[in-house]
Structures are given as structure tokens and as C-alpha cells.
Design brief:
mainly alpha; Growth Hormone, Chain: A; 0% strand
Length: 548
């Protein structure tokens, strides 16, 4: 294995002309990645401003934002095929054009289906452009192709940009209008395209691999299932869950898409996602951990904004400044994972225990200290630990999928499953559950607190009905959040106990194959697919010979 990945001289990028210093070439592609990652379809941090100016609902904007993540996840299964079909120059230019169009549409449209479709397409091309850049500099980051090291870089870029884009969006809206964020990103994308046309040559690999044998129908059906799942989680509370025909219809459509996909995977030679990927032990384990872990920290989406805005009285600037605390946690979590997991090869179990322990500190801090008089600086510890815990668990279990023993043809399909369960389900399933629990818990606590108010009490004799109602709702929200944090803390402690008593001596050894090996595998897969299609056409044209 060591000889297979032996270094072959200083790193260089043939796509970039020789007059650019060799040491600066990788940073050029990192600059492109940052621009692409900032260029989302909608900017969720500006959701309140969009609701006020466009007439859209909060759920509409969330649905569009999560559609971008679905497009990103769906792209994983074919990103290698597209890389070996088109040069990095073409991928970046086309992605830049699509992202510019997506920013223009999202800045002006109020049509929800158009917004969702636009963000889905933007997510697809954002992932492809990111992969084109990151795969170009992979050997610069880790000459031995150690994916634990590579994923530390990926997540410090991706997760940090999520926090920084929210900060940039709010400050842009504060000093001007939220639409200006789209125009700023359009300008940066135009700058990127100009730099690509000047500084990146159209270098194609030694083999031309056409886009044959891709199950595009399966891709559409999987995207339909993921969109239906997200629709139910986002709009469930608004439509009162199963009482509404919209939720029941989405459930039936999603189950139909999933059933058809599973049926097609039973006989297709190259399904979009095969049973081999779905039944892999590491993929199943990662899905289970994601569901538990991101449900535990789902209070990020349900509680934190309401608590800071309604109870602590933070304005939008103070609210978004909390992203700096999460950003610091992400940087620290990536650095810690790089030093321990990637370099020192700490076990998967040890890293999972550390991530859950950080999540427990986050939950315990809010459970014991949540109150109406918490200072802004006191929120640094829980938000810092939450950011570190989330990035640690993501890096560790994405690396475990690389180390799952799947053949390379199936590996990208496992990445699609991981992208959906880690990014989409992690952001929608847990908040839907916690939000529904909060609604019932708050109604119960508000009724109990309201029953204690007496109209003859001299302390409240001069209080207005509106003030009393506000006091009851505020206290009910604080008590309900404390109660739910307590239950989540118990679940987190139980999960940590289960992890501690389990035995695992596996250490990260996720070594990526050479790009020449990957190209050879994909070419063999395409050749096999084209040969089988030719034989099928011959059989259809001569049924008599086929029966013989």
C-alpha cells in the first residue's frame, strides 16, 4: 500500500499555466471553493427579511434551503462520472453560470415550486464545482490519499462557510437589503469565471469516459423521495401533520418513489443506489448515529433563535453574532480531529464518545443555566461545544464509510446516502420531532401556569390581560425548554453509556485509490454497460435466436 501511494515529485496542477507559481496554485482552487460554497440558492439567515418583503412563509424558505442540500446529496453518486467526462474548467464555468442564474431567480421570485427547483439545481452544481476543485488539490492536502485528513479540510470549509454566510447575509441586510447578498455573490461568481477563463486550461484526462449507464430515472425518484420526506418534516406542524391532505399526499408520493426505486434496484445492473450500499454495516451505523445525534442537538433549530430573540431580547445583529461561537467550535473541532483522528489514528469509538460528551455538555449547560437573564457571553460554551461535536461526528462517520470495504463503483452511492441522512435528515427530522414536543409541552405548562393566576391577586390587579398572557407564554417557553433539554440530556447520557459498553478497536485507515485506478474502474463499468445494452438490442431485434 505504501508503494502504491509513493510520492512522485512536487505537487503541481497541469490545469493552471506555468507562469502561476506552483505554491499558489492550490490556493486558487480553495478561493474558487469558498466562492461556490457561499453561493447558495437562498440564504436561510435572511429568512425573516424574506418573509417580510416577499410574502413567503418561513417554511417555504426552509424548504428551498433544504432542497439545495438534497441536490448536493444526489450529486454524490455521479460526481466522479462527471469529473472524468468534463475538464475542471468546463465544470467551473457551467457551475458558475447556473449559480448566477439561481441567485437571480432566488432574489426575485415568490413562486415556491420555482424557488425549490432552482435551489435543488443550484445544490447539484455547487457540489460538482466543489468536487472539481477539491479533487484537483487532494494530493496537495494528503499525498498518501488519507481521507481522514481530506475530510478535515472539507468540513472546515463547508461548515465554516455555513456560519460565515449567515453572518455576511445579516450584515448585508442590516446595511442595505437582503437582495444585495445575491448581487454580491453574482459579482464574485463573475470574478471566478473570469479567473477560470484566464488561469485554468481545458485539460482533459487521458481517457474520455462518456456518461453512459447512469440511472437518471433512479436519480429523479430518489430526489422525489428526499423532497417528500423534507416536505413532511418542514410543513408538518403548519398543516397539522396527518390531518392535512398535503402531508398524506407527500407521504404516499414519497413511499411510491422509494418503493419503485427499491424494485428497480432488484434487477437493474447499475441502479442509482444499490442494495449493496444500503445494506452496508458502516452506512447503517452512520445513519443510526446521525439520527440520534442530530436529534439531540436539534434544539439548535427549534430553541436557540426563539430563546435569544423572544426571551433575551437579542436583535438580528446580536443573534447572528452567536455564529462566531459556533464557527470557533467548528475550527477547534476540525483541528482536534485532525491531530487525534487523522494523524494519531484514534479509534472511532473514542471519537464518537468525545462528540457525544460535547453534546452532553451543550445540553446540560442549557438545562442548568437557561433563564431570562443570561448574558450573551455566557452562550459561548454551549455553542462552541455544539459546533465542535457536530463536525467531529460528521468527519468520523464519513471516514468510516470510505473504510467500509465497498467497491469503488458502490462507494459514491454510499456517499449519497450519507449526504441525505447527515445533512438533510439531520436538519429536518430532529427539529420536526422536537418542535412538536415543544408545542405540546408548552401548551401543558401554559395551562398550569395560567391556572395559578387569580384575578384578586393585588400584585396583578393593574396588569392588563395582554401583559399577563405575555408573562405566561414567556415563563411557559422557559419551563418547556428546560424540560425538553432535561429529557434530551437523559437520552444523550443513555446513548453515551451504550457507546462506552460497546467494543470497537477499529482505527481510521481510509486510503483513497489512485485517480488512474478510479478512471480504469469507471471505464470498465461503462464498457460493461454499453456491451449489455448492445446485446439486449440484438436480442430484441432477433427474438427467434434469443429463444434458441
Amino acid at each position: 500500500m505504501a508503494d502504491w501511494h509513493a510520492p512522485q515529485g512536487p505537487f503541481d496542477i497541469p490545469d493552471v499555466p506555468y507562469y502561476i507559481p506552483r505554491r499558489l496554485k492550490p490556493y486558487l482552487f480553495i478561493f474558487f471553493v469558498l466562492i461556490v460554497q457561499f453561493s447558495g440558492g437562498v440564504y436561510l439567515a435572511a429568512a425573516s427579511d424574506m418573509v417580510g418583503t416577499t410574502g413567503l412563509m418561513q417554511e417555504d424558505i426552509l424548504m428551498a434551503g433544504y432542497a439545495s442540500l438534497i441536490g448536493l446529496a444526489i450529486n454524490f453518486a455521479v460526481m466522479f462520472r462527471i469529473k472524468f467526462r468534463f475538464s475542471a474548467r468546463i465544470q467551473l464555468l457551467v457551475s458558475g453560470i447556473v449559480l448566477i442564474a439561481a441567485n437571480l431567480i432566488c432574489a426575485h421570485t415568490t413562486n415556491v415550486p420555482l424557488l425549490v427547483i432552482t435551489c435543488f439545481i443550484a445544490g447539484w452544481f455547487r457540489m460538482q464545482a466543489t468536487f472539481a476543485c477539491n479533487s484537483t488539490i487532494q494530493l496537495w492536502l494528503t499525498p498518501v490519499r488519507d481521507m481522514a485528513i481530506f475530510f478535515c479540510y472539507v468540513y472546515i470549509i463547508v461548515d465554516s462557510v455555513i456560519q460565515l454566510s449567515g453572518i455576511a447575509t445579516i450584515y448585508t441586510a442590516f446595511f442595505s437589503q437582503w437582495e444585495y447578498m445575491h448581487w454580491i455573490m453574482i459579482g464574485l461568481l463573475v470574478l471566478m469565471m473570469i479567473m477560470v477563463m484566464i488561469l485554468v486550461k481545458p485539460v482533459r484526462g487521458p481517457m474520455f469516459i462518456p456518461l453512459l449507464g447512469i440511472d437518471w430515472i433512479g436519480a429523479i425518484l430518489w430526489a422525489g423521495f428526499m423532497l417528500c420526506f423534507t416536505f413532511i418534516c418542514v410543513y408538518g406542524n403548519y398543516f397539522d401533520w396527518w390531518e392535512a391532505v398535503e402531508i398524506r399526499g407527500a407521504a404516499l408520493l414519497g413511499l411510491a418513489c422509494l418503493g419503485i426505486n427499491l424494485w428497480r434496484a432488484s434487477f437493474l445492473h447499475h441502479p442509482y443506489i444499490s442494495f449493496q450500499a444500503m445494506k452496508n454495516r458502516n452506512v447503517i451505523r452512520a445513519t443510526g448515529i446521525y439520527l440520534v445525534f442530530f436529534t439531540l442537538i436539534a434544539t439548535e433549530h427549534v430553541f436557540e433563535h426563539s430563546y435569544a430573540a423572544n426571551i433575551l431580547g437579542f436583535d438580528e445583529i446580536n443573534l447572528i453574532d452567536l455564529n462566531w461561537y459556533v464557527f470557533a467550535g467548528i475550527v477547534a473541532g476540525c483541528a482536534f480531529t485532525y491531530l487525534t483522528f487523522a494523524l494519531r489514528k484514534w479509534r472511532y469509538k473514542a471519537m464518537t464518545v468525545i462528540a457525544f460528551a460535547l453534546a452532553i455538555v451543550y445540553l446540560a449547560y442549557f438545562y442548568f443555566f437557561i433563564d431570562c437573564g443570561v448574558e450573551k457571553e455566557m452562550l459561548f460554551i454551549p455553542l462552541f461545544f455544539r459546533g465542535a461535536a457536530a463536525v467531529i461526528i460528521s468527519i468520523v462517520f464519513l471516514t468510516s464509510i470510505v473504510q467500509s470495504g465497498l467497491p469503488f463503483q458502490v462507494f459514491p452511492q454510499a456517499l449519497t446516502i450519507n449526504g441525505f441522512t447527515g445533512a438533510v435528515m439531520g436538519a429536518t427530522f430532529g427539529p420536526a420531532i422536537i418542535g412538536e414536543i415543544l408545542r405540546h409541552t408548552m401548551a401543558k405548562n401554559a395551562a398550569l401556569l395560567g391556572a395559578n393566576i387569580s384575578g384578586t391577586n393585588p400584585d396583578i390587579a393593574f396588569a392588563t390581560l395582554g401583559q399577563l398572557y405575555g408573562m405566561v407564554q414567556t415563563q411557559a417557553l422557559v419551563v418547556s425548554m428546560k424540560e425538553i433539554y432535561g429529557w434530551l440530556l437523559i437520552v444523550a447520557l443513555a446513548s453515551l453509556t451504550v457507546i462506552l459498553v460497546s467494543y470497537s478497536s477499529v482505527r481510521p485507515f481510509a486510503i483513497f485509490p489512485k485517480w488512474s485506478t478510479i478512471r480504469r474502474i469507471i471505464k470498465h463499468m461503462v464498457r460493461t454497460t454499453s456491451k449489455s445494452s448492445v446485446e439486449k438490442r440484438k436480442c430484441m431485434s432477433s427474438p427467434g435466436k434469443a429463444r434458441q
